Amino acid sequence: MRQKVYAGHAVRRLREKLGLKQSELAQRLAVSPSYINQIESNQRPLTASVLIAISRTFAVDITSFGAEDLDRLVADLREVAADPFFRDLDLGLQDVKAVANLSPVFAHAFLRMHVALQRTAEWRASLDDMLAAGVAPGGDDAKLIPYEEVRDFFHYIDNYVDGLDRAAENAALALGVLDGADPAAAFAAHLSRRHGVQVEVDRPDPEAPLSRFDPRARRLVLSGVLTAPTRAFRIAATIAQLEHADLVQETVASGAFRSQTAAEICRLALHNYFAGALMLPYRRFLELARTLRHDLDRLVLETGASLEQVCHRLSTLQRPGAKGVPFYFAKVDRAGNITKRHSATRFQFARHGGACAAWNVHEAFEMAGRTLVQVGEMPDGARYICLARAVSTPSLRHGQPSRAFAFGLGCEVSFAHDIVYADGLDLKAAPVARLGVSCRICPRRDCDLRAFPPLDREIRIDGNVRGIVPFTIS
Fold first, then answer.
1. Residue ranges per domain, the chain?
2. How far apart are CA 387 and CA 375, in angstroms?
3. What is a single cellular component term in the Gene Ontology annotation (predicted)?
4. pLDDT digit string (tens) for 214-263?
5. What is the greatest pairwise CA distance in the chain?
6. How confident is the model at residue 330 (pLDDT cuts 50, 70, 90)?
7. Which among 158, 196, 256, 402 could disulfide-bond with 318, CB atoms 3.0 to 4.6 Å apart, if both were Cys?
8. More confident residue, 296 or 11
9. Closest CA to 156 of 75, 96, 69
10. pLDDT over 90 for what percent of the chain?
11. Each residue of 127-146: pLDDT tens digit?
12. How far apart are CA 279 and CA 290, in angstroms?
């Protein structure tokens, strides 16, 4: 059953942008003014006929009225509402839904303010520690905020940047990407021919930067430790830097970032986005992924890209009118830190703290090289096919630890027929892992893997009874 679309805020913003009154919009769409009023106040959902009328009358992409962003916003607001700072307000699900529905701009501002509040508290705690130890404060109070701001930017645009994606696709077709041409060689020849930039591969020095671009000398030097897919990726990112600076700047400006640091992080991320799209051009890769039913090993073999590049690209295939399977993608280290996260689904990642211990991405470290398949259910009842695989990079010198990561990739079970990993799974009888965003906001009362209590619930301690979890949740 399709989810009803309540997008009153989007209709209201469109009407205000066009300078129309509700009665004037109603006349243009051939509906009653009272109906427009009910839509804008989210008392009634948008019907298919009204969506089509809006699209035809105002040349608006109707996918912008989808419910995915609202789901994410509600999940983020619920996590923030669980903070003890707001406990006395008793903010419930209906409260946060009302805010997300009626004023998503305010909701985003509230989330931004909460991040700043948390970082201020962390800075004060570290300041107390430094003063107690007699160490001078270093002034690193806002280091993490720009990264989180950029993550949120990509999070709310479905990790898809249309202008850059199409530019990369056109360039890839001209260079013969996925037609048998060696990507790194093709990209290097393009840089030399069009920009006079020479690409050199240095010796494998573990102390040297992975890549160095000298604009004056027109030289791009790549470390010899890089794998072939990563070399191609770094060359492609340099192409973005040289050829699409205006488009990148326009996208950065649309993010309205609060600091120059955040803007530069976003600029770097956009160069990398273009690189991924150039190596795996949209329509060709989408067709290949569908043909192979998203077999990751086959996609790596057919494209010559790395597993991470393939997984990341799958999470970006959200072009209006030509969408792929909506995937989430996450990169997790051994400590449980999510170092990269993107989601074109309702699957939510914790904004703060560790990920759910029941998620198979943690188990993947014990079975490196194998793709683990899990059916997981989030607290909202949505079920996902969760894939996880661990990879490691060898150390570059004696005494240096190897780096290990686990990749998590998944989609809702409604797309099971598109995924080769669902073959043989009895989705009605298969064990279902009960997942959550993070322990501190998870509503489950009987999870044996819970690390600590939820912040929005009272707990009870019985000194005479000891279970696996040493408390019960009221």
1. 8-66, 70-142, 162-323, 328-434
2. 9
3. cytosol
4. 999 999 999 999 999 999 999 999 999 999 999 999 999 999 888 899 99
5. 78
6. very high
7. 158
8. 296
9. 69
10. 42
11. 444 444 454 555 444 444 78
12. 17
Quickly list H helices, 103-143: 104-133
* 205-209, 390-394, 438-442: the lowest-pLDDT one: 438-442
Could you give the CA distance from residue 103 to residue 97 in angstroms, rounded to a whole number? 10
What is the distance between the alpha carbons of residues 355 and 333, in angstroms, rounded to a whole number? Answer: 11
Retrieve residue 296's tokens: 């990751």
Q: At what angle do helices 8-18 and 22-29 cross, to 10 degrees?
A: 100
Buried/exposed code over 266-293 (b: 16+ C-beta within 10 A; e: otherwise) = bbebbbbbbbbbbbbbbebbbebbeeee
Residue among 87, 68, 67 at smallest CA distance from 441: 87
Instruction: Give the up-direction half-sphere exposure of residue 158: CA atoms within 13 A in the CB hemisphere.
Output: 26
* Separation CA 274–CA 294 (nearest Å): 22
Whether residue 468 contacts residue 392, with contact meaning beta carbons closer than 8 Å, is answered with: no
Give the type of residue at 292: L
Q: What is the CATH number of domain 328-434?
A: 3.30.450
CB-CB contact of 328 with 407 (8 Å): no
Average pLDDT, stretch 101-118? 77
SS3 154: helix
Type and span of the H or E element at 341 = strand 338-343
- Residue 309's identity, in one-letter code, is Q
Under 8 Å CB-to-CB from 241, ≥6 apart: which residues? 213, 271
What sections of 176-259 are H helices per DSSP? 183-195, 228-243, 245-254
What is the rounded end-to-end Cα distance, in angstroms, of the chain?
Answer: 34
Bridging pattern class, strands 322-323 and 318-319: antiparallel
